[in-house]
Amino acid sequence: MDHTEELPDDALAAILVRLRPRDLAASRCVRKAWRAIVDARRLLLPHLLPHSVEGIFANCSDYNDKNYHEYHRPHFLGRPSTQHPGVDYGNLHFLPGYADEDYAATIVDHCNGLLLYDNERELCVVNPATRRWERLPADMGFYGECCAAYLSFDPAVSPHYEVFLIPPKDLGLFDVSDCRSAKAPPEELVEENFTVSSRWRFSAYWRGALYVLLCHGTFVMRLSLSNGKYQVVKTPIDDKEPKYVQHYLGRSEKDVYFAQFHDRIRIWTPSESGGQVKWVSKYNIDLEPSISSIFVKGICKPWILDNKHVLDEYGNNKLLAGETFDFNSDEDNILDTNDDSGYRRPYNQLLGLHPYKEIAFFITEPTVAVAYHLDSSKVQYIGCTILCHGSSRLCIEESFLYTPCMIGDLRENASTAED
């Protein structure tokens, strides 16, 4: 006799929810009553939604003899994981044109586990965790020089995604110098038009709205997906600051973050009152060079880069094979920042902000990726970012923190493309 039949639904649900994700999924096949409870109470949903950073996708380029940016396929700095063992998130070789040197394949955007991919001929949406993907309609072919593409996806609400193409004629100015010359005050720019810089274009999806960074960080546009209305908000940066200051738009667990990075990192969050949006300072941290040597205290589990020489014939990272450890974002790879000996490495580039923890990812000189804890100033070694193409050293143009998701309505699978 199966005594679980005598249990109330609440008691059975309390037992099932304690199972590991794979065991919980298998339990749905045991009895119809169990499946009904798992599905009705959405017990599997928390395990399918994105909740961790598993790597960083990076668009890369080098300079040719004409000093022209020559783009190469995206690279992935990732970590072995017990969450989805055997899945190489960085292997996108099944996508059309991904390894074709005649075209510049790039990641255009990322949102909650889905990537927006561009190969100069077409746009695709792809889920690296499920290895499913689909092409966007051919009538979106005007994408390119005349507009920018942004992705929004909320798997907790729907398995469907949305892609927004924003033409420059509908967005307006080109860069910071143009913004300085705008005669209209910021509060009157809601109906004005602005363009998006082709480099370091960032967006963030948060609570039904898409936030887009404009004019090299001078403005943020907030687009409500429910009614299609948008508002352009002036950011708190100084218009007279040098252009090499880096700006970033991302999200945290509880809010949208706008960041400014040079020799310090400053982070603001938007606060709305009476229809007006103001920026509230969250962090203002001096980032003086603090790392003199890559000496890890305790366990060292670096993330692994998918340079060409470590890939097998199918595009999988051979160094990830057989590895199943998880990176503990609080305990592993701690760097000694109190060592006064040797050359102290400055922070060169902001890679992104952790969407679930108060952590910023940086590249320090020359090619070391680190995680900086904003609350404690603790620094962790992530891995080496030496990117090569033949004899050329590549630089990172854009980066996207990747958060796997097992939900998403996409037609094609990896085997379809490989066939």
Distance between the termini: 49 Å
Given the structure, what is the number of helices? Answer: 6
Which of globular, elongated, flat, extended, rod-shaped describes the shape? globular
The SS-based structural class is: mainly beta
CA radius of gyration is 23 Å
Helicity level, as a percent range? under 10%
Q: Main sheet, how many strands, which sense, barrel?
A: 5 strands, antiparallel
Q: Ranges with pLDDT <50 over ≥5 residues?
A: 171-199
Biggest sheet, spatial arrangement of strands: 18-2-1-25-24
Question: Describe it for me?
Answer:
There is one protein chain. With 419 residues, this protein is mostly beta strands. The protein has helices at 9-16, 21-27, 32-40, 45-48, 176-181, 414-418; strands at 55-63, 69-78, 106-111, 114-118, 123-127, 132-135, 148-153, 161-166, 203-206, 209-214, 219-224, 230-234, 246-251, 256-261, 264-273, 276-286, 296-297, 304-305, 334-335, 347-353, 359-364, 368-373, 379-384, 387-389, 392-402, 412-413. It has a five-stranded antiparallel beta sheet, with no helix packed on it. Strands 3-4-5-6-26 form a five-stranded antiparallel beta sheet. It has a four-stranded antiparallel beta sheet with strand order 9-10-11-12, with no helix packed on it. Strand 10 and strand 11 (219-224) form a beta hairpin. It is globular. The chain starts with 8 loop residues before the first helix and ends with a helix. Residues 171-199 have low confidence and may be disordered.
